[in-house]
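Subject: for your reference before the review

Hello V.,

The reviewers asked for a structural picture of the protein, and I figured it would be easier to keep everything in one thread rather than splitting it across files. Below is the amino acid sequence we used in the manuscript, unchanged from the supplementary table.
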Amino acid sequence: GLSQYSSDPRTEWDLSAYSTREQVLEAVRNLRYKGGNTFTGLALTHVLEQNLKPDAGARLEAEKLVILLTDGKSQDDANLAAQTLKNLGIEIFAIGVKNADEAELRQVASEPLELTVYNVLDFPLLSSLVGKLTRVLCTRIKERSHKETADTPVNTGPQLSPTDLKISAVTSKSMHLAWSPPLRPPNKYRVVYYPSKGGTPKEVVLEGAVSSLQLSNLTSHTEYLVSVIPVYDTALGDGLRGVTSTLPLSSPRSLRVSELSHNSLRLSWKAAQGATHYLVLCSAAPDGAED
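And here is what came back from the structure prediction:
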């Protein structure tokens, strides 16, 4: 599977899209480069929520590996998102090109860093990594797949997945989330939310017995993407997703002008709820315009 990112991650193809080496190589040849910003944390969250799901081709019994390729320093918190993946048993390999931040690569990658962190000066030099990286990846998969995974749930569905996400009490800076828990309560819930037009993802971790959350300190008049993900010992259930816009800030109304003189006038209006100050701008109308 492959996703490309800037400020808005984009899935190019899912794990289930191709079944042969030739198909994958053809897809790579047809890939169009996506320029833009470097929100690595948002990209890693996208991979967890969108690409490592059963409906995207992820098999619960399979080892989960993420290879991050970046040519710059992240503009959001990549370490927090990476830690979430690693806590779920997902191994991260970090490959930097050109202006990548080596310290950040080492934070994001899984241990041992001598096997999971790579850095080259330019894109053509990536070819020198292919042989070694292939051997390391295959060896790691074999090592990990021999470990006992007796507690791994065999499927998702209603046993492991919450339902019926309701978003209510929306204001200019807050909203309330509630959902119906799955038949098998999770250990934890991860609630991730961020502006749909790009921004740093924020995350709240809840105990599995909780099924509601109040989000506050939001930005007004902004569309937010919200994900509620159940976390079990060795698996993730299918998450719930919602999209809701916060309300715009209230505006003053009914502007009136009175007590006109040759060099003054009085303004009055109905107050805007929650406003602490007003900025009043006044300028002469151009010739011929309505007074």
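For the response letter, the relevant points are probably these. Residues 160 and 288 are 69 Å apart (CA to CA). The two ends are 63 Å apart (CA to CA).

Happy to draft the paragraph if you're swamped.

O.
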